[in-house]
Amino acid sequence: MKMHIREFALLTGVSVRTLHYYDEIGLLKPSSVDEQNGYRFYDERCLERMQEILFYRELDFPLKDIQAILSSPDYDKHNALKEQKRLLTLKKERLERLISALDGAMKGEDFTMNVFDNSEFEAQREQYAKEAKEKWGGTDAYRESAEKTKAYSREKWDEVNSGMSALMAEFAQCRSSGYAPDSKEAQALVKKWQDYITVNFYTCTKEILAGLGEMYTADERFCSNIDSHGEGTAQFMSKAIAEYCNS
Description:
Layout: E1 3-4, H1 5-12, H2 16-25, E2 32-33, E3 40-42, H3 44-58, H4 63-71, H5 77-106, H6 119-137, H7 140-149, H8 154-176, H9 184-200, H10 206-218, H11 220-227, H12 233-246
Antiparallel strand pairs: 1-3, 2-3
Helix pairs in contact: 3-4, 4-6, 5-6, 8-9, 9-12, 10-11, 10-12
């Protein structure tokens, strides 16, 4: 499935302008962009990520926290959805109480003011937000990245993303040239990748880099993006990073 940005906006209920902004800040990138006219296109993986974003927005998470959570190597989608369901159920139960009170009021019945009480949901939401940020969005790397990238313009993001794409293409070329993940050529590329992340986002330690390397094959979105430069590039890159971090 391949959708033009306007089709995707209609399906998800999110404006085209918002989708442009999500692309600009790196929260939701289109699956492809037509080089001739700049049109953005979205696929099933984009829809899946948008669903996750909308669940967090429904729970009033700031965009920068959503981005940190969804991009974390430790993100557990299944557990996140379970917690979101629990919170949304509390929200639904409160709305049902309010609807019932309105029905009663229309019949002239009295109701107590505690039907407006939302303290249980707020307390649970704040607790979940605190735990999620501590686990996925409260790292020094995230804070450093947020500080470093907050002033990035669209042009700067294009420059940074183009640089990352070029490096992925170098990994693809290294693999197609017959070099092994533990070769000096591949290891030099890993160092180059590590330095690029450090310069443009956050201090990329070997520990962080190792987690990223695992994510490049474990997360289908990352794997697909990297493999767009050549089938097997994500696996090659992941193995090269593992070799580098274990040396």
